[in-house]
Give the backbone structure.
Amino acid sequence: MLTSKQRAHLRSIAQGYDTIFFVGKNGIGEELVKQLDDVLNARELIKAGVQESCDYTAREAADEIARLTGSEVVQVIGRKFVLWRRSKDPKKRVIELD
């Protein structure tokens, strides 16, 4: 569980990130979850969004993807959300948290 200080630190890092994944009209499928899982292993922090054609709200999508990938929701703003998960490979850990 992230502390408010850690969450603030991750939010500040995520500001410079581009949105790299979008949940669309097909919803949250196995392929999307696998891709997100792979990117979380490599980068630890990702920014994703929800397209208008999607049946999920950004909060619903973030919560569901976090549950499926074992990650944590850092923030949800509008149609975008940020997820974080410590890399499973210690050599790939790029973000230090207090």
Q: What stands out?
A: The chain has one domain: 4-87. The CA atoms of residues 34 and 69 lie 8 Å apart. The two ends are 12 Å apart (CA to CA). The domain at 4-87 is CATH 3.30.110.60 (Translation Initiation Factor IF3).
